[in-house]
Amino acid sequence: MGRQVVRLARLRTTRAVVVIAVALAVCVGEIVHEPRLDRNPVFAGDVVVFYPEHPDDEVLWGGSAIRAAIDTKGADNVHVVLVSRGLGATPFLAPARLRELTGAQRGQLREDEFRTAMAALGVAPPNVVVLADPAPRSEDGFTQMRQAALGFERRAAAAGRTVTHVAHSYALDDNSLHRGNGRVIKDLLDQGLIADALFWIKPEFRYNVPAGDLVRFQALAPADSAAVHAAIDAYTRTVSAAGLEAIGFRSTPWYFYMLEWDAYLTSLLHTSAVPG
In sequence order, what are the beta bridge partners of 230? Predict the structure, then answer.
């Protein structure tokens, strides 16, 4: 009897947290709603590489940017490198079957969701890279990320081409792994080992970026909007037979609501001039 009471109390608390989070997401979404662009910026590099730290980061913070890169550079020249499969995700209201999974099983599910989302965005399958899971409390993932970035740079240079690298913000993020991800690219840029980079931010940090250093991308064409919505769907649907368990959505549902609140599905990035 006591255990049932405790479970019920936890369930009510979790539901209350979700309701409050969704309400906050709507409020923040209203505040940061972005006006429509006339056209998207064009990435400087001939090749564009995105480095999400966890599955769904690339859609939440860069879905429209990825579509803009595909539209202007062609799918053959757009790559997405997943640095970590996010084994530590803690979904809200997770069904029992998720709580019983091993780390490897959870990682495979998250990878399945990621690959489904990338297909929906139109990223060519050979250009979707998943790095090996780092050991617990290890920065091996960042070492692999650095090697991957240098590899893209070398191959492009050999072909007389240039690369734009897109990572998380090294300064404006409340997640230390996200900041570490961005720091890898920022350090390579500062060392002159890569030539061009941009850094995506969560919408609540939008007003921390000077206007001249903010770069916005939007889903302006119906096809781009449909692709981003389809990628969101890959993370929010539960279809166990297809390897979709909405793990990312269950972990941070408010960010998905915030993204869909914006009619143009805006991706916010900043230049390397932002201090940090």
Answer: none
The residues that bridge with 176 in the sheet, in sequence order, are none
For 100-143, what is each residue's pLDDT tens digit? Answer: 677 677 888 889 999 999 999 999 999 999 998 877 666 567 99
Domain residue extents for the chain = 2-33+45-270
E-assigned strand segments in 31-133: 47-50, 78-82, 128-130
Q: What are phi and psi of 29, to 5 degrees?
A: -60, -40
Beta-strand (E) ranges in the chain? Answer: 47-50, 78-82, 128-130, 163-168, 197-200, 214-217, 238-239, 244-245, 267-270
Q: How far is CA 265 from CA 16, 81, 222, in A?
A: 27, 21, 12
The Cα–Cα gap between 174 and 29 comes to: 18
Structure confidence by residue, pLDDT tens digits, 64-92: 999 999 999 999 999 999 999 876 656 65
CB-based contact 59:235 (threshold 8 Å): yes
First-to-last C-alpha distance (Å) of the chain: 52
Contacts of 113 (CB under 8 A, 6+ apart): 55, 56, 234, 235, 243, 244, 245, 246, 247, 248
Render pLDDT for 196-223 as a digit per residue (tens, 0 to 9).
999 999 999 999 999 999 999 999 999 9
Claim: this prediction has a pTM higher than 0.90: no
- What tokens appear for 232 in the block? 């969101």
Rounded distance, CA 21 to CA 72, Å?
36
Q: Which CATH class is domain 2-33+45-270?
A: alpha beta
pLDDT exceeds cutoff 70 at 155: yes
81, β-bridge pairs: 129
